[in-house]
C-alpha cells in the first residue's frame, strides 16, 4: 500500500512496483486518515508511508496502522531534512520497519534512478524476509495412494558452522566495532543500550548504512539512549574510550595508527559493496590497527557488506558476533558472515549485549 499526498508519487511508485513484477499494489491513500480507513480492507504486507501529508501525517498515522494491521512492515519515506530524519528515527522506535530518504521534488523523484533502485531493493529484501518468516507449512502429500500418509520430511537446513571460541583472557578488547543496515537503528540502540557501564571500557565505532543528515541525528538518538557521547567524528580525531563514533552518511570511516594512538580516517573514495559508508572499510582498517584486540558485531541488514572485513578480522584473531536470522529484519549482512563460517557466535538480538559485556570484561562466553 502506498501512502503519499502526491498523486504523481503514488502513480509513479505504483508503476515501478507493477513493472518490477514482484509486487501487487493493493491500495493507495493520499493521507494518513485515508490510510487508516483503508488498511484493513487492503490487507497489505508492506506499506510505504510518507511523513509529510495533510489532515493526518505519517507519524500520527503509524501507530493506528500498526494497530489495525498487526505485523505489517512499514517503510517511512521523507525528504532529507534534520526534522524528517529525527521523525523517521522516532517512527522506528514506534514500530516502523525501515526508512527511505526521497528527493525533495517531484522532478527529483521522477528522474532519480538511485531512489528507484533503493526503494525496490529495500522492498525486495523486506518482502523476501516476510515470505520466509510467514511461509505456510507444506501440505501433506499423498503417498502410494494413501491420503493419510505423512508428507516426506523437508530437508533440514545445513547447520551453520561457527569458529572455535577464543581462549579466555587471551586478548583484552581495545575497540568495539558495529555494522548494520536495514533494521539497524533499533538493533544498534538495543545492543548499545544494554551494555551499561561496559560502554566506558573501549571506543565504539558504528557503521550504519544511512544518508547524510540521518547519521548525525542517529548519533543524537544514541547519545540520548545510552547517556554517552555519540556523534559523527572528524577526520584525524583520536579515539577515546567511552565514546560512540557514528560514520557520517556519504563518507567511509576507517582507522589509522598515529604512533601509539589510533585516529579516525574519513574519505570520499568510491562506494564499497554499493555502500558509503561501508562496514568492510572499517573492519579492514581495524584488522590492521587492532588485530586480535578488536571485537566486532554485525547486525541486521541487506546485502553482504562486512563479510570481507570480517574475514580480515578473524584472520588476525579478532572476535566476531553475528545476529541470528530469527531476530533480524533482513538476514543479509549477518547471514553472509554466518554462512561463510566467520562468526564465533550467532546470537539473537537480546543475547548480543550480554555476550559483549562478558567479552569486554575480559572473559569469553
Automatic annotation (TrEMBL):
Catalytic residues (positions): 181, 209, 305
Gene Ontology BP terms: chemotaxis
EC code: 3.1.1.61, 3.5.1.44
Post-translational modifications reported in the UniProt record: Phosphorylated by CheA. Phosphorylation of the N-terminal regulatory domain activates the methylesterase activity.
Matches recorded under CDD domains: CheB_Rec, REC_CheB-like
Pfam families noted in UniProt: CheB_methylest (PF01339), Response_reg (PF00072)
Domain Response regulatory: 1-117
Domain CheB-type methylesterase positions: 166-363
InterPro entries recorded: CheB-like, CheB_C, CheY-like_superfamily, Sig_transdc_resp-reg_Me-estase, Sig_transdc_resp-reg_receiver
Signal peptide: none
Top-level taxonomic group: Bacteria
General function of this protein: Involved in chemotaxis. Part of a chemotaxis signal transduction system that modulates chemotaxis in response to various stimuli. Catalyzes the demethylation of specific methylglutamate residues introduced into the chemoreceptors (methyl-accepting chemotaxis proteins or MCP) by CheR. Also mediates the irreversible deamidation of specific glutamine residues to glutamic acid.
Name recorded for this polypeptide: Protein-glutamate methylesterase/protein-glutamine glutaminase
